[in-house]
From TrEMBL:
Keywords: DNA-binding. It comes from Streptomyces synnematoformans. Residues 210-241 have a biased composition (Pro residues). The lineage of its organism: Bacteria, Bacillati, Actinomycetota, Actinomycetes, Kitasatosporales. Residues 21-30 have a biased composition (Basic and acidic residues). Pfam families: TetR_C_16, TetR_N. Residues 1-30, 206-241 are annotated as: Disordered. Residues 27-87 form the HTH tetR-type domain. Transmembrane segments: none annotated. This is TetR family transcriptional regulator. InterPro entries: Homeodomain-like_sf (IPR009057), HTH-type_TetR-like_transc_reg (IPR050109), HTH_TetR (IPR001647), Tet_transcr_reg_TetR-rel_C_sf (IPR036271), TetR_C_16 (IPR041678). Gene3D superfamilies: Homeodomain-like, Tetracycline Repressor, domain 2. The keyword Iron does not apply. Residues 50-69 bind DNA.
Length: 241
């Protein structure tokens, strides 16, 4: 018995992994927590989601969520990695074939992910959280940079490869926000094939086209001209002059 512990009192549990039996732990628990976390972030957003709420919905002790994932930011990043997993094939699609057609391959795959409800819902949760919370946005940038930009950029030989990839991704993510989140018409109801046909050449231009020459420098504004002095009235003519 430890000093200060009354007879019959249960031993105090040290911090760390919760003891088995105190919570519902076992095979599949980590995946269940992660699935629950994705659903909580999707329904409540980043700000309104808590470790305690995730644990309650998953039927586990909050300490077990901390044990598997750490802080709320780390839970969100783990959920984001899973949600972002379908997009991990994009780098291979860009480099899998000739440069011609890379824009269509990338755009077609992107819409395949977003048109699938099972893969779309986690991505919607991610983007909603990223546009409403600075911490979530920073985690989103980190995931995109590590898993997409840094994997596609080396495959492009142009010196501005990073800018090219960012512009291509911005074209597609911006379309996804307007179509699936804002639901702006007629884009929201357009056939995916129509959007692919319109967007693929733009995405390919960002990835492979020669950048246009810089715009000519604008001409300096003309200096304002001083107003002409008023004309003096002619002197009256003398009679008989």
């Amino acid at each position: 018995m430890r000093a200060g512990q009354a007879a019959g009192d249960p031993p105090k549990r040290r911090r760390g992994r919760p003891r088995r039996g105190a919570v519902e732990d076992g095979p599949g628990t980590r995946d269940r927590i992660l699935t629950t976390a994705r659903r909580e972030f999707a329904e409540r957003g980043y700000d309104q989601t808590s470790i305690r709420g995730i644990a309650k919905s998953a039927g586990v002790d909050p300490a077990l969520v901390h044990h598997y994932f750490g802080t709320k930011e780390q839970v969100f990043e783990a959920a984001l990695e899973v949600a972002f997993a379908p997009a991990m094939a994009i780098p291979e699609l860009v480099v899998a074939g000739p440069a011609e057609g890379a824009g269509e391959r990338m755009t077609r795959f992107f819409f395949g992910v977003w048109e699938n409800r099972l893969s779309r819902e986690p991505l919607l949760a991610v983007i909603r959280s990223a546009v409403s919370n600075d911490t979530a946005a920073a985690i989103f940038r980190r995931i995109v940079t590590r898993n997409l930009l840094h994997r596609v950029t080396p495959s492009l030989s142009q010196p501005d490869a990073e800018m090219r990839v960012e512009l291509a991704v911005a074209q597609l993510v911006g379309t996804a926000m307007l179509r699936y989140i804002v639901r702006l018409e007629p884009m929201a109801s357009a056939e995916p094939e129509d959007l692919i046909r319109r967007l693929a050449p733009i995405v390919e231009h960002h990835l492979t086209a020669t950048p246009p020459p810089p715009f000519p420098s604008p001409a300096p504004p003309a200096s304002p001209q001083e107003p002409a002095p008023p004309q003096q009235p002619a002197p009256p003519q003398q009679p008989g002059g």
